[in-house]
Amino acid sequence: MNPRRKKRLTWALGLIAGVAVAFSIILYALSQNIDLFYTPSEVVEGKGNDLVKPQVGQRLRIGGMVVEGSVKRDPDTLEVEFMVTDIGPEVKVLYTGILPDLFREGQGIVAQGVMVEPRVLKATEVLAKHDEEYMPPELAEQMKGIKHVNPNQPDAFEGSQ
Q: 41 Cβ partners below 8 Å, 6+ apart?
């Protein structure tokens, strides 16, 4: 092979290898930042057809309603412990910090954090809903049997007239 072609081939292979390595590093970094959304039932029973449960140490978001009478506050620190449920099992959420003003028992919340035990989430952030009527479509279907209808579809409101 001609030395000039050999040099070009080496450069081309090096460039392809460099792009592949960079792409792999980007994918790895992105996979570390993905927070999957679970309901308390999905945390306990599994999600999807394969019933995949979150692993201890996995980052995730969990959404549901704060169970009445489950909020326990440490009077000396900002540590709060409460239970979250949807329609079935409950998951304990541990949080250290100031809770949102709208946080209360019976209120819908989304907590983001890391699973420290199979039914315990150590939250880094807790968000409270501002409207009691709004609910994510997946959670509404599970809790109330409400089927989400896309208003942008032409036949979405035919049955309601």
A: 86, 87, 88, 89, 142
Angstrom distance (rounded) from CA 29 to CA 23? 10
Our measurement of the distance from residue 89's CA atom to the centroid of its chain's CA atoms, rounded to an integer in Å, reads 17
* Alpha carbon of residue 121 to chain centroid: 12
Distance CA 119, CA 59 (A): 13
What digits encode the pLDDT tens for the residues 40-77? 888 888 877 878 788 888 888 898 889 889 999 988 89
Stretch (H or E) spanning 63 = strand 59-66
Check if the beta carbon of residue 56 is closer than 8 Å to that of residue 118: yes
- Token duo for residue 130: 């501002």
pTM of the model: 0.62
Cα 82 to Cα 14, 85, 93, 103: the distances in Å are: 54, 10, 5, 11
CA 160 to chain centre: 33
Q: What does the pLDDT read at residue 26?
A: 87
Query: 113, 121 in Cβ contact below 8 A?
Result: yes
* 3-class state of residue 123 by DSSP: strand
For 13, the 3-state DSSP assignment is helix
Neighbours of 67 (CB within 10 A): 17
Q: What are the φ and ψ backbone dihedral angles of 11, each rounded to 5 degrees?
A: -60, -45
